[in-house]
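DATA SHEET
Item: assembly model
Revision: 1
Owner: S.N.
Input lines:
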Amino acid sequence: DVKVTQSSRYLVKRTGEKVFLECVQDMDHENMFWYRQDPGLGLRLIYFSYDVKMKEKGDIPEGYSVSREKKERFSLILESASTNQTSMYLCASSLYNSYEQYFGPGTRLTVT
Amino acid sequence: AQTVTQSQPEMSVQEAETVTLSCTYDTSESDYYLFWYKQPPSRQMILVIRQEAYKQQNATENRFSVNFQKAAKSFSLKISDSQLGDAAMYFCAYTQGAQKLVFGQGTRLTINP
């Protein structure tokens, strides 16, 4: 079975802190994704990566950056956390030519 | 830009009965994929069913089936013989390329025993 893990289930940070959310997949998937999930808005794509050191902006990249130094790991970075970034963050991965994405359990981030 | 709309924020059904969740989408493309994802309270999102737009036959996976109306851009999910374990958030999603999913707002399904 594909396994996508995220470093934390719950995280509380202060405004202005630099925040790292880590995602690791164990199935040698080329594509990796970061979404944020908010009530009434569904999931919105922040960034995705289709190869090591490659990244593409999604629909809401402002205030975020990403890093993919190894194929299995995709990090989401909040350079200076703000309260409007309080949300659920979901990581996903897929094979290069597959439409099916596999999701991690999510990280609920609270910025105070 | 493609959009996906789920107009039912919440639905409830009696155990063992049938429920239908609605989804509409907007696209100018002719080739695409549609999905229903389930997110149980534990929050791990899992794929329930998928439909290729070029296929006229509606997809079925055990108790889950879809009603795909391409001309109407409608993609509803029917759950038969509802079970307590079906309680979850359900998301409709669209993709035209293999790198980006567009999600609807979600429908929270409650199963009443």
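QC remark: The interface with chain A takes residues 4, 6, 9, 33, 35, 37, 42-47, 50, 91, 95, 98-101, 103-106 of chain B (CB under 8 Å).
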